[in-house]
Design brief:
The complex is a heterodimer of chains A (388) and B (278). In chain A, helix 2 packs antiparallel against helix 8, helix 8 runs antiparallel to helix 12 and helix 11 runs parallel beside helix 15. A five-stranded mixed β-sheet of chain A has the order 2-1-3-4-5, with helices on both faces. Chain A has 388 residues and is α/β, with parallel strands linked by helices. Chain A is built from 15 helices and five strands. The radius of gyration of chain A is 26 Å and the shape is elongated. In chain B, a hairpin with a 2-residue loop joins strand 9 and strand 10. Chain B folds into three domains: 144 residues, P-loop containing nucleotide triphosphate hydrolases (Rossmann fold, 3-Layer(aba) Sandwich); 66 residues, no CATH class; 53 residues. In chain B, the strands form three sheets. Chain B has a six-stranded mixed β-sheet, sandwiched between helices. Chain B has a four-stranded antiparallel β-sheet with strand order 2-1-4-5, with helices on one face. Chain B has a three-stranded antiparallel β-sheet with strand order 11-13-12. The termini of chain B are far apart. Helices cover 33% and strands 29% of the residues of chain B. The chains are: A alpha/beta (388), B alpha/beta (278). The interface between A and B is medium-sized, with 31 and 33 residues. The structure holds adenosine-5'-triphosphate and magnesium ion. The site of adenosine-5'-triphosphate (ATP) has 11 residues of chain B, from helix 1.
Amino acid sequence: MKEARSISGLRILAIMAKEFTQLTRDRLTYAMILAVPIMQLLLFGYAINNDPRHLPAVLLDQDRSVMSRSAAEAIRNTGYFAFVKEVNSPREIDEAIESGKAQFAVTIPGDFERRVVRGDGAQILVEADASDPTTVGGAVAALAGLPQTALQGDLKGALATRQPAPGGAQAAGAAPFEMVIHRRYNPENITAYNIVPGLLGIVLSMTLVMMTSLALTRERERGTMETLLATPVEPLEVMLGKLAPYVGIGLVQTAIILTLARLLFGVPFMGGWGALSIGVALFIVGSLSLGFFFSTLARSQLQAMQMSVFYLLPSLLLSGFMFPFRGMPAWAQAIGQVIPVTHFLRIVRGALLKGVGLSETWPSVLALAAFVLVVGALSVARYRTTLD
Amino acid sequence: MAAAIDVHGLNKSFGDKHVVQDVSLTVEEGRVTGFLGPNGSGKTTTMRMVCGLLQPDSGSGTCLGYDILTESRQIKRHTGYMTQKFSLYEDLTIAENLLFVARIYGMDRRAERVDKALEGLGLTGRRDQLAGTLSGGWKQRLALAAAVLHEPKLLLLDEPTAGVDPKARREFWDEIHRLAGEGLTVMVSTHYMDEAERCHDIAYIAYGRLIARGTVAELIDQSGLTTFRGEGPGADRLGEALQGRPGVEMAAPFGAAMHVSGSDRAALEATLRTCSSI
Ligand SMILES: Nc1ncnc2c1ncn2[C@@H]1O[C@H](COP(=O)(O)OP(=O)(O)OP(=O)(O)O)[C@@H](O)[C@H]1O
Ligand SMILES: [Mg+2]
């Protein structure tokens, strides 16, 4: 038998005002809110390099010839490219890259074989989503020597003259075709472009999860939880009231990081503002709810901190922030998929570096929304209105 | 007269420690009831179960007419609970703490009520002082003011005068009686025997069992409790040594003296004889 519950705006306000006042009395927290984003931004100026393989690629083979197939096979054999789909139009290529389904798109023009046979500057176009430059580096390097050897099997008999002598340095110019690499989004290959937007996700998780993970444990340790529980306040009111002031903090940090990203690192802001705003809002609320959930579980502030750190590690390592997501083994990617930072990074990078909006990043937005709902519900369910 | 608290067979264990055992208790409206018992006897735990802060393992009852198992929200709305340890926000000012309480109980005319409470406390001039910087006695007075700000019908005070000087204690009790005079039911736990004498009723709990109940006079008559009074240098510091010995159900300092009580007179005497050599 449950009593009728009603949510009171006044009680939420009471908690909110109290939390906000306490926050303003806590200088250390103030310092942390400002210092952490700046410090992290400077610390992570350099990226960690990595050499992922089997990156998803789409193939547009307009030639459909023996040679075009050999060339595609040779590209696959480098080990860096995994053709996930064969497409039929450049439009499909754009779609695959914008949505992140493919990191590369290989286009073999319709006159490929003809030009190889004629020795008339045959080309293969490789477009790379270089918003994450560490991912692309190794793959692009592997393509460099490919034209020399790719068509070895086809260039026989009368065509043997098109095949350069093996190993000859001067033969480079005589390769039967040319690879044209086209880096999209981040043509200058600047790692900071990739790291800095990612840092937004890391800084927000770090500070917001940690701060709210102390929300209840601090009250419990100071003994004030007893007073709070002796009042008729509802779990949801406590949660909303306690989290609200931190939403403001999250927004301030977002502003700091984005401003510095622009001023210090010249990170492009391509657009996708709608997706970015919704992503930031969901991510802030999600991180806060997670912290609050931790604080319903933890018995002490120390435990709450440990839980936050435990959460931060995979957020740093498996979200695609430090190491390219595609470079990770399948199990790590599976874990990464359930970490909100992963989805937040996709939204932020998509918006800032590619200018893509909700129409492309909606799966990540949905994932974040689901996370908010699940964690919020868990927190309210876990919150005890007694001291038991 | 209606009962403000009416509970039966309350039990509570923490782990395998059975802390409150079959406690049944009735407190009539408008009475000041003293809740006595040695450390760890289950006073705080019982009070928490009465006001909905702890779920009893078994037992039932009502508080202010509301079921303690299912209507704790209503109970909380009409009960003022002053915790044993100061549990207002030390990093909020005096006025902010009171305002917080007024808001959380959804009071109207909040600023006015806070001002009035400050005035009653004589803290109007220090309203912007952080609560954490108050001295022990003032903290207790502030906590009491906060506990009655929402005009509760029942007031549960858990050792409100621990560590408070004698003058402040007297004033505190005057205030309790003034509130009781306004119709408030008060239950107050204490270790001080002299405070027991200022209560209308006494409930005495030891080792989780309620062992005596009644007015002070009744209790002395019928409890079968024998109390020895020991005086002399250091007598008031013997409490810990005596606690838990055979026959000793309670040992409490009373001024410079030590009061030792137990229901088994022979065992108590035997213990005291061996102890007198300490
Ligand atoms: N949350 C808890 N978890 C475990 N044990 C507890 C808990 N709360 C109380 N206890 C134990 O229950 C027993 C009774 O505690 P309680 O606080 O009710 O006693 P008390 O009569 O109020 O004592 P005191 O006079 O020291 O305040 C003690 O032994 C205490 O250690
Ligand atoms: Mg106690």
